[in-house]
Specification:
The protein is an alpha+beta fold and about 110 residues long. The protein contains two helices and four strands, in the order ββααββ. The chain has a four-stranded mixed sheet with strand order 1-3-4-2, covered by helices on one side.
Length: about 110
């Protein structure tokens, strides 16, 4: 699956637009991570546990959107966007959306 943030795929033509595809995941923080994060806030630095949580959330949402696009017969997603929001204290949402498309076969 080709996934791009641009409206086109370089060197390829869009044959058909198959519509909006989207996926989201909501993850809650772990109490152990919160304790470590609080300590890290005191001394400063990157909070690796939270970073890893967001990395895993993005990967999950991307896998889900690719599955949805593949199910529609797409071979690419264009105009991919991601958004993060806090849905409650201690929980964050990752929303991924884009347009599923079918590309013309590569020339050559």
């Amino acid at each position: 699956m080709i996934v791009v943030t641009s409206d086109t795929v370089p060197g390829r033509e869009i044959e058909e637009s198959l519509g909006l595809v989207q996926a989201n995941t909501v993850r809650a923080r772990h109490i152990g991570r919160d304790i470590l994060a609080t300590l890290k806030n005191i001394v400063g630095g990157e909070i690796g546990a939270y970073r890893q949580l967001l990395v895993e959330s993005r990967q999950q949402a991307l896998a889900e959107i690719e599955d949805e696009a593949s199910g529609r017969g797409a071979d690419a997603i264009v105009a991919l966007r991601m958004a993060t929001s806090s849905v409650s204290q201690g929980a964050a949402e990752i929303l991924v959306y884009g347009t599923a498309v079918r590309l013309t076969p590569p020339s050559g």
